[in-house]
Amino acid sequence: MNRRMWKEVKFQIHPLFWLLVCSAIWTGYFLEVLTLMVLVVIHELGHMSAAWSYGWRIHSMQLLPFGGVAKMEEWGTVSAQEEMIVALAGPFQHMWMIIISYLFYFTGFWSKGWTDYFILCNFLIAGFNLLPIYPLDGGRVIQALLSYLMPYRLCIMITLWLGIICSTLLVIGSFILALDGVLLHLLFLSLFLVYSNVIALKQKNIQYIRFLLRRRERGISHSAKIQTLCVNERDPLWSVVKRWYKEHYHVLKVVDQKGRVIGFIPEEQILEQYFDSARPNCKIKELIS
Predict the structure, then answer these.
(1) Are residues 31 and 93 in the same domain?
(2) Which of 185-220 are b and which e, b meaning 16 or more Cβ less than 10 Å from the residue's Cβ?
(3) Which of 202, 218, 234 delimits the end of a domain?
(4) Tell me, what DSSP letter sits at residue 261?
(5) 16 lies in the same domain as 48
(6) Are strands 58-64 and 67-72 parallel, antiparallel or unpaired?
């Protein structure tokens, strides 16, 4: 990572983060909270390093009261393999930090109590981020894996509904797991995740259009599997585009009302017609020359 990359990224601190710092100082847990925040920053830097290696555009990294968020432009528009590597690069950072903590302990730099706390924090941050909830790392990995198996729009829907269900269970768990009262930190995190998934569900079409635009601009790898979609000549264009696979190259096999094949259409022609003609309701038969 060069200096120019660092200069292009905005580092932001949420105002409520300072409230957390003040409360940590007041209650005598400043060192513990500081440790958690350092681990979160290293976690996000892992994502950013992997993203930079692929040439992703990174807008900012923000410290929130409950963690950190690195905002990147390419999510949902690049290959599933890239997305999985970038998503897992964050949790991977905790592996080497746990190894280092053991080295510090065995060399006498750290006490057993502090080493146990440091390792526990690493496991908690990595484990929580690997939950199957979008936009956590686990949710992004699941979305990437599902994109190999089903149309990408359906993949988005399943991922977000899974995120809503799992984060709602976390909200309930924040009350059940507490011996007395409620686990406020888990409650706020869970509510934020419910909100994030609900908003993402409302904006699912935007995410899908971004994917299609990127596909039209850059295409797909020549090694991608060819997916032949059998469509009726009277099918509207938009209904066909909704069946796109993220990791496949598409060829439409067009049949008439009697089931006879009347032509084939490559995906480039479909995407060109979809975006340039502004006629998403036109019939597929109109595209056959």
Answers:
(1) yes
(2) ebbbbbeebbebbeebbeeeeebbeebbeebbeeeb
(3) 218
(4) E
(5) yes
(6) antiparallel
d(CA 49, CA 5): 10
Number of other CB atoms surrounding residue 121 within 10 Å? 20
Full domain range(s) for residue 43: 1-130
Residue with tokens 């599933």: 80
Find tokens 């850059």 and name the residue: 218
Tokens of 94: 């905790």
Judge whether residue 1 has pLDDT over 60: no
Q: Count of CB atoms within 10 A of residue 277's CB?
A: 12
pTM assigned to the model:
0.86
Tally of structural domains, the chain: 3
Same domain for 145 and 88: no
Q: In terms of domains, do 210 and 276 share one?
A: no
> What are the start-end ranges of the E strands in 149-247?
225-232
Residues 38 and 104 in one domain: yes
pLDDT score of 2 more than 60: no
pLDDT, tens digit, 9 for 90 and up, residues 257-267: 888 898 899 99
- Judge if 251 and 162 occupy the same domain: no
Give the whole-angstrom CA distance, residue 251 versus residue 264. Answer: 7
How is residue 47 written in tokens? 């994502």
